[in-house]
């Protein structure tokens, strides 16, 4: 039995695709590219959430659930990016504290 709400959610929320985990050919920029992609995805998710919030406030959005789901997705994505950043800073600090 198809659920119509699922189709509505997938049409509103941008798809998230993980960057390739294959190592960059000799450039060493694989991790950097992955982080850049994650921040770009966060920005796109927040922009989509903001657009839906404006539509909800102005009355142009027929289903308020779309805005709620997009806002929650943006919040969770931001928390994930912040957690990865914090772990990166923690790892950097641990490396700097090591004795030579």
Question: What's the helix and strand layout?
Answer:
Layout: H1 4-12, H2 30-58, H3 64-97
N-to-C CA distance? 63 Å
- Rg, alpha carbons: 18 Å
Show unreliable segments.
none
- What portion of residues belong to β-strands? under 5%
Order of helices and strands: HHH
List keywords for this structure.
100 residues; mainly alpha; 3 helices
Question: Quick gist of this model?
Answer:
This protein is an all-alpha fold. It is built from 3 helices and no strands.
Write up this protein.
By secondary structure, the chain is mostly helical. The longest helix has 34 residues. The protein starts with a helix and ends with a helix.
């Amino acid at each position: 039995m198809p659920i119509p709400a699922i189709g509505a959610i997938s049409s509103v929320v941008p798809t998230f695709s993980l960057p390739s985990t294959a190592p960059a050919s000799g450039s060493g920029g694989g991790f950097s590219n992955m982080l850049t992609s994650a921040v770009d995805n966060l920005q796109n998710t927040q922009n989509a959430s903001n657009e839906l919030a404006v539509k909800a406030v102005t009355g142009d959005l027929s289903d308020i659930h779309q805005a709620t789901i997009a806002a929650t997705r943006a919040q969770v994505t931001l928390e994930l990016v912040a957690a990865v950043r914090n772990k990166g800073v923690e790892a950097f600090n641990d490396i700097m504290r090591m004795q030579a």
